[in-house]
User: What shape does this take?
Amino acid sequence: MSCHRHVFRAAPAAVFASVQRWGRRNNVHKLTLLVQTYEKPCVKRTRIAEEKAYYPRWFYLRYATEVIRYSLKHHLRLGQALDPNDDQRLDAVKPLRLPSSEERRQHLRRMEDALALLHKQVMEMDAVCAVTGAKKSAAARDPLHVSAADILAEVERSQGRLLSLPAFLRRFYRPSGGGHSWSVNELRILHLRLTRFVKLVLDIHSTRELLALEEGKHARWGKSLSEEELGKLFDAKRLDLPA
Assistant: This one.
């Protein structure tokens, strides 16, 4: 029941009249033919044929993709026995060794040194341009200029919540300031250093928590003293009664 009419530039009204006559004869309203959401019968037949042909294949490919991703994530080999020499199953055969307390302390010291250096670099951006290396004059600074120390203090007060780079540029970049305020490149460098600063602070905090947990400074949930530890505790606290 489809209606195909070619629209010529010379007589578009005649084509519209022909379509209207066809619609009146087949009880199809003219607005139904003009709206974009109306699916013509020929298009509907083509869509149903495509769905019958391709949708089962599409669902099968999606299921196969999920199976492959699961096998890669869990180091599975479908249809093969376990081979200890298989490097893809190395994590399952030989789990990764956890770092010792001494290695964690060394890593913590390195992160603290990197954090101190990064803090110094952020503070120096108020006095020295990070792009050109030229010294800045505090007297010629824009009155609406926000220093790097104030920005860092604001990030620390907000517990590490840092604006995204576009929002950071919209807030602190002042085109009217000229050379007396932050440039775009300086703000990009400052945002990168602040992002690294926040990540280092979080890593240092988590490493300290792990060290404190290993050293027994936290509550030992779900654990109890062994027989040897109980014996040592009893011997240390025992009072010898007189005969």
About this structure: The CA atoms of residues 156 and 198 lie 9 Å apart. The two ends are 115 Å apart (CA to CA). The mean pLDDT is 77.
